[in-house]
Each structure stands twice: as structure tokens, then as C-alpha cells.
Amino acid sequence: MLKKLKEQYANENKQFTLITKAGLVLESDQAIFNIPANSSIFEFHPFFESLPTEHMGKEELNFFCIHLTLKDEIYIVDIKVIPKEEGLLLIFYDLTSHYNTYQSITQTRNESVIKTELTVIKNKELVERERFKNRFIQNFSHELRNPLTSIMAILGLLCDTKLTYEQEKMLDFLKESNTNLRLMLEDTLSIGMIDAGKLNIRNSVFDLHKLIELLDFTYKAKAKAKGLNFECSWDDKLPKYLEGDRLRLFQVVTNILDNALKYTKNGGINFSVVLNQKRANLVNIRFEVADTGLGIAKENQNKIFESFNQVQSNEIRKGVGLGLTIAKKLLELMGSSIKMESTLGEGSRFYFDINIPYILFPKSISNTKSKSKDKNSKQLEKKYKILLVEDDAYVQTTLFKVLLKTNRFKINLVYDGSLVFQEVVNNNYDLILMDVNLPNISGNQITKLIRDFPFKNVKNVPIVGITANALQKDIDQYLEAGMQKVLIKPFENEELLQTIFTLLK
Ligand code: ADP
Questions:
Q1: What pLDDT, on a 0 to 100 scale, did the predictor assign at position 320?
Q2: 323 Cβ inside 6 Å of ligand 1
Q3: Which end of the chain, N or C, is surrounded by fewer C-beta atoms within 10 Å?
Q4: Would you put residue 345 in left (φ > 0), alpha (ψ -120 to 50) or beta?
């Protein structure tokens, strides 16, 4: 039984052909194709012309994956050539479908390998592009900081001089433009830092009530200037002191409020802060901004949270399209998420719920208040000696002017890091205001030298670093080197003076 079945399948797809060494076909079983007896095997297919038929010894030869094109059909066969007494026995194995399947599997496999490799290359390219973008943003914003510091300082000084009404208006305009430029710079830098994973949330105790009052005051004025109504409502059950990142929370809320102002022509804006829940030491608070502005079409509602995406028409567009992306990403870092409802032509509502720890009686805040009061009164009596170390001539001049104008300082100027140390050792300074990136020796190194000096009057002099470098890890390094405070360019004149007065004894 098995023998019969075996016979049926054993010869399937096999053809036996006997030829003479001169290539004459003696016999063929024609199981696959027709090779007539007494014909020449070389006429059957040119492949056999390459066979050394006349010179074959006793060794058999094997050929694999031979393509035989016969009329319109292509056979893919393995061929065994076995020397026999009568001549040569050819065994053809028809493996056409086997080779075709194999080929298509290999092709699919190769394609998928190529696809994977392409994805890897693409990812690499994306990472490289991202790295380049972040480096570019950092360098670019770094270079902008010096000129912006000068502009802000000079504007501050100009505003305090005698001006005509028209000049005052022009200065207001310049100040506003400069503030916008500064905010854009901060936004661009923030997005670069968030994407590079370098932005850390820094929690400290802050006064929520004051924050809301500040927002209410600022945006009431801004809305009024645009002929809009601004309503601010907040729960009086909201705790006063929270422990969170005030700066970033402020950045999120102001980005949303600025948009509401930007994209509303008539009507008004409602800003509300509501206590959702209070448990253990945590509060959950909802911040919400609703406007009666242009609204956003349904199909655009997801796009607006992507970097550099703006969906309003050209004439309305202002800014760079980063505000909402930053708000979204910052909220994610703070464990919250931004939500939005909007109807085109009617208005929009942006809101988020956030968990923040609250503090009942913050010690640090009440202590610093009374201390700084004492300090202020003492400070009124004295003229302080300050060393200003700055290599950028414009920034040097403007800072010098800002300090001098207070009439509270005697100022010496140094532009080269290597001159600082001898200057400090030979004079009794009350404070050093120093750019961190100086020629010859860095502000960091000078600070360390000063802190290691054996005499107290030199060792303990307060040092305020100024830098165009806004990366937190660098700022931490400056503080570690021994600087008391680091100001990031560009800064307001008030911020500079307040920092200096807080550190002076
Ligand atoms: P920018 O305001 O700088 O363009 P944003 O990221 O803050 O960038 O906003 C992205 C886009 O979302 C805006 O260009 C605008 O088209 C739309 N948008 C944001 N807020 C509002 C709003 N309150 N009303 C209408 N459109 C808005």
C-alpha cells in the first residue's frame, strides 16, 4: 500500500533524461517538459552548452536554482548530472513554486529589514534635528540677552527723565515691544528646555492670593486698554500659601490670558480660580479663562497645542505659536493637563485642575518680611562700594548708569576677569556684580578664589552673578561656586536694585 502511494509521489516534479556525452538525447520520461529523443540537449536549452559533457569524469555535478525559459514559461529547477556508462543521466527537480515562494518571503523580509533600517535612520535624523534645534535656540537666545538687557535698562532710565507727552507714549510703545520680545525669547527658550528635558519644576512657598490679585490688576488694565471687560472671581476658601512652582504657574495662566486678550475683539474675559477639593495637605484648584472672542473651529482644536501652530488668519496672528504648547507641557510637568472648549465665532474656555500642597503657617515668609524692613531702614544711611565686572561695553555702560542713578553707590568698573581678584583684595567692596562669562577667567573661578581667601572682608563679599545663560544646571553651578544670587539677562532695573539691596548689610 505504502509502496504504491510512494510511487505516486516519489517521482512527482522530477524528470529523468539520459543523454550521450555528445549531447544527444537517448531517452526522457517527459514528466515535466518535453525533451524529444534523438534531439540535441543543447537545442533544448542553452544552459547545457556550459556543461563540460565531453570531459566529465566520475564525479556527479549539482546545479541549483537554474531558470529555464521554455516558450512562455519559466521553470526554476535544480539539475543533477550523473555520469553513467551510457553517457550522462540528467535529473531535473522542478522547484519553481518553492523558489518563487522562497523569493517572495526573502523579498518581504528584505523589505521589512530595509523599512526598519529606514525608521532607525529617520529617528536618528529626528533626534539630530531636535538636538540642532535646541542648540540653535539656546545659542540664539543667549546672543539676544545682552542687547535686550541694554535696551531694558536704557528704557527704564529714559522713563525717569523729563519727557513730552508724545515721547512718553513712544517710550510706552517701545517698552511694550521690548516686553513682548522678552516674553517670546523666554517662550522659545522654555520650549527648547522642556523638549530637551532640562526644565525642572522648582517648588517653593508662595502667596496664591497675591498671585491672583496681581493677575487681576495687570489684566484689568490690559483689557481696559483694548476696550474689553475683565472679570476676576476667586473662592475665598482658597488657601493663601501654596507650595509649588509659582513662576511656571504664572507662565501658564498668563499665556492663556494673553491669548484671550489677543483673540477677543468685543465683549470680555472671565478669569476664575475655584477650590475643587481640599484633603490632607493637598488642594485641587481649577484655573479657568473664558472669552467672548473669535473661537476656534473644531478641526483646528487639536492643532493649537502643537509647537509653532497658529490657526487664525494672518492679520490677527501675533506671537510665534508657542504659548499653548508651553502651557500644555508645563502643566504636564506639574501633573495637570490643559482643557479647552470653543465655538467658532462665539468664544473659548481654557481650564485646568491642579493639585498643589498648601501650607497653613509658612515660617520663612513671615520672618523675611520683618528682617527686610529692618534692613531697608539701615540701608538708607549708607553709600555702598560696588565692583561691576562686565566685558560687554553696552551692558557695562547701562548697568553703571542704572546703579549710579540711585545715588547710593560708589562704583568701580572692571572688564577683565583676571583684574577682579587684585581689585577685591586691595579694596573693601560691599558687593560684586559680575558677568559670569568673562575673558581670561570665568566668574565661577573668581568666585571660588574669593571664597577661599583667608581674610573675612574679602572672603564674605556678596557676589551677584549676571548671565545670559538661563540653563538651570549652570545657574546651580554658579550658586555652588559661592555666588549669592544669579540674575538672568535681560532683567528689569528694579529686579537688579532689589537683589543688590537685599544682599547689602
Ligand atoms: P500664538 O498665540 O503665539 O499664535 P499659541 O500657542 O498661544 O500661539 O496659540 C496657538 C493658536 O491657537 C493661536 O495662533 C490661535 O490661533 C489659537 N488660539 C489660542 N487661544 C485662543 C483664544 N482664546 N481664542 C481663539 N483662538 C485662540
A1: 64
A2: yes
A3: N
A4: left
